[in-house]
Amino acid sequence: MAQWDVAVIGGGPGGYVAAIRAAQLGLKVAVFEKERVGGLCLNWGCIPSKALLKNADVVNAVREGATWGLIGAEGVEFDYGAAVDRSRQVVDRIVGGVEGLLRDNGVEVISGTARLAGTRSVEVGGTEHRASHIVIATGASSRVIPGFEPDGETVITSREALARRSAPARAVIIGAGPVGVEFAHLWASYGTEVTLIEMLETLLPMEDEDVGRLLRRSFEARGIACMTGTKVTRVERTGAGAVVHTQQGETAGAVEAEVVLVAVGFVPHTEGLGLEAAGVRTTRGFVDVDGKMETSVPGIYAVGDVTGKLMLAHVASHQGVLAAEAIAGLPRPEPDYVQMPRATFCQPQVGSVGYTEAAAKAAGYAVRTGRFPLTALGKAVAAGHTEGFVKVVVDEPTGQVIGIHMVGYDINDLLGEATMVAFLEATTAEVGFAVHAHPTLPEALKEAALAADGEAIHIAKRRATPREGAARA
Fold it and tell me: Got the DSSP string for 421-472?
């Protein structure tokens, strides 16, 4: 029977990072993975989708070639299959790199489906492995709506969508979260007639409402139909694809499509893991953890999407580090999930960290905001992409920036600075006083912070209307 200091079930962004960090700390580690390491993100999520989205950027740039003095671009053809091939090459390269990192750190990767065989043992393929500590990092997969079960051809999830070698002629996307809007942008870039259906009132409903509204205007200007506040009542499969039946208030409707992409969230991979027998507590299928990522059973930890905290790869990786360091006895502050960065990679891109304006008010903050439009940013004008803005949400008494929300072309390049602003609990005075290189995108964050204090340099100061002036008097 093999004996390990740490047994990690699942080799995704949470699991492999936990394994490497534990090995760095001198522990003997094994990772149990039924497929390739990298999990959903590296193999069938973050990485291949971002590779395809880069191809979409190139396609759109060529299509707008006359703007850049590119003569004769009108007749260029675009090979979607070649884009998919490139995305798989990117996956192979990155996953191969992770496999190398695990080897370099002395982590043993054991192939197979693992389950808990107790509170200190893991069973895979009939072999039991004893471990002083266990980390559950089994991830999640696309949620399936009863009645809308995917068939892999007409009704699909993001995994099948990433494997398609052609963009559909007409597509309905159910769900306008990050996955939904990214595929809407991707397919529309290749000429697909896209209808995006969202039950809530804005696109990207977990983001600031101002961001969702601008993204909708941008999408509709490109011909992407956006149906918000709309429920899908049923999907009727036909010989040519499907008819998606909808209900918006009292109005019923129907949309025809070649392909229906269901993008309504994720469910945890906990079934068959042996959690209940081991005494590991769950809530709605997600594993309960404390601030050290430890479950209800001492010595068993969980990280990543299976915890349901914030289902993002970089959050999983951070949790993986916290779990490994907790096992090694290193003290670390508990994670603040509000102040984790969030990124969506359609164009215009959406990035955020911290409270939305509505969430800050709901949490009891006295709020003021500052906003800077990219139309006033030299870098954006020079680059030819002026759609969007940066908005800061500020705690009025202290001036601390408690939320940053951005929408614009390649705007997620600002998330590094935004994350540091949140982590260091910076104020608008500090962000506004810091010198930013010109011309760069980060100047927009500086100006938004200044705008919150009424001191923005590069936008006109809004004058009060006579009615507003009388009210103030």
Answer: HHHTT-BHHHHHHS---SS-TTHHHHHHHHHHTT--SSSPPPPPPHHHHHHH
Determine, yes or no, domain membership for 208: yes
Q: Last residue of a domain, which of 264, 288, 319?
A: 264
CA neighbor of 305 nearest in space, from 333, 289, 286: 286
Q: Do 291 and 193 belong together in one domain? A: no
Helices (DSSP H) in 312-414: which residue ranges?
313-327, 357-362, 378-383
Could you give the percent of the chain with pLDDT greater than 90? 91
Instruction: Say which of 245, 318, 438, 458 is annotated catalytic.
Output: 438
Spatial contact of 179 and 173, defined as CB atoms under 8 Å apart: no
* CA 396, 400, 402, 404 torsion-angle sign: positive
Write the burial class of residue 431 (CB in 10 Å: 0-12 exposed, 13-18 middle, 19+ buried). buried
Domain final position from 264, 282, 314:
264
pLDDT reported for residue 144: 86
Collapse the DSSP code of 130 into the 3-class scheme (helix H, G, I; strand E, B; otherwise coil) and give the result.
strand
Does the pTM surpass 0.70? The reply is: yes
**Residue owning tokens 């004996």:** 3
CA dist 298 and 119 (Å) reads 9
Give residue-wise pLDDT tens across range 164-197.
Answer: 999 999 999 999 999 999 999 999 999 999 999 9
CATH number at residue 45: 3.50.50.60
Burial (CB < 10 A; 0-12, 13-18, 19+), residue 473, is exposed
Query: What is residue 321's three-state secondary structure?
Result: helix
pLDDT digits (tens, 9 = 90+) for 402-443: 999 999 999 999 999 999 999 999 999 999 999 999 999 999
Strand 225-227 and strand 193-197: the pairing is parallel
The residue type found at 470 is A
Domain of residue 172 covers 155-264
- Is 405 one of the annotated active-site residues of the chain? no
Residue-wise pLDDT for 47-98, tens only, equals 999 999 999 999 999 999 888 898 877 788 999 999 999 999 999 999 999 9
